[in-house]
Design goal:
The structure is a homodimer of 145-residue chains. Helices cover 28% and strands 41% of the residues of chain A. With 145 residues, chain A is an alpha+beta fold. Chain A has a single domain (3-129), classed as Nuclear Transport Factor 2, Chain: A (Roll), CATH 3.10.450. In chain A, a hairpin with a 3-residue loop joins strand 3 (71-81) and strand 4 (85-97). The first copy, chain A, is globular and about 45 Å long. The interface between A and B is large, with 44 and 44 residues.
């Protein structure tokens, strides 16, 4: 395995662990995947969240909105990496279960940017979004990939 | 200048050239900044654009919507890079001028991921978005950074 392949495999594992923590809103484990100076562009509410404290508070607030198990599945990840800089872009099937037990999900877009420091990959930037319709200005929740 | 600093400076210059081409919708120069297999998550219309042809057609379509000079200004870019893998996250003041000559802009979020191949940095992935309001589902055009 080349150094690059090794980095790609490490990043893939890092993001799998991160997604697993997100699914159960394990905020301490989730936050351990971010650098202290993370800059996050989330899909909702405000332009950016800067720093682990602000972003952690946002994750905590998001966990209050969700009832039932969170659907949060990485699909079609493309990862590129050198020995200490890497990124991943993928789609994310994201949503929850409504009061009648029906799963409601959307295809989100996600980009993660990572640095390896002290032998460990951490996310220094992430970007989640849905595209919007140009006429209505509304987010497009029902698009297929 | 270390190898990393050198890469960061090269990426900064690459994105400045790219933004300059975007401002005047110089589509051939714009497309020359992308890899053939670019995967783009744009702010509007559909989940993803895969490949230079599909994304070029989208840029071309966007150019039809714009009247007057395009505002397209990179703000607060954070760039990390090794010798052949790099990324940039920034805000983008983006918009145009209405029929009365009044500038209408929004703060978009942008992430660019680049690879250096054959001595040149090219964008292999980019992600533009606005966050949306969770109650109305509407894109938030008037947020401050």
């Amino acid at each position: 395995m080349s150094k690059t392949d090794h980095s790609v495999a490490e990043i893939r594992a890092t993001l799998q662990n991160w997604a697993e923590a997100a699914r159960i809103f394990n905020i301490p484990v989730l936050l351990d995947h971010y650098t202290d100076d993370i800059r996050a562009f989330d899909a909702v509410i405000q332009t950016q969240f800067i720093g682990k404290k602000a972003y952690g508070d946002h994750w905590q607030a998001c966990s209050q909105f969700c009832t039932g198990p969170l659907v949060f599945e990485i699909s079609d990840p493309k990862i590129e990496a050198s020995d200490n800089v890497g990124f991943c872009h993928c789609l994310l099937r994201c949503g929850g279960t409504d009061a009648n037990g029906v799963e409601k999900t959307s295809w989100m877009r996600m980009t993660s940017c990572l640095l390896k420091e002290g032998g460990r990959w951490r996310i220094v930037h992430e970007h989640f979004s849905l595209p919007f319709d140009m006429e209505s200005g509304k987010a497009l929740f029902d698009l297929e990939p």
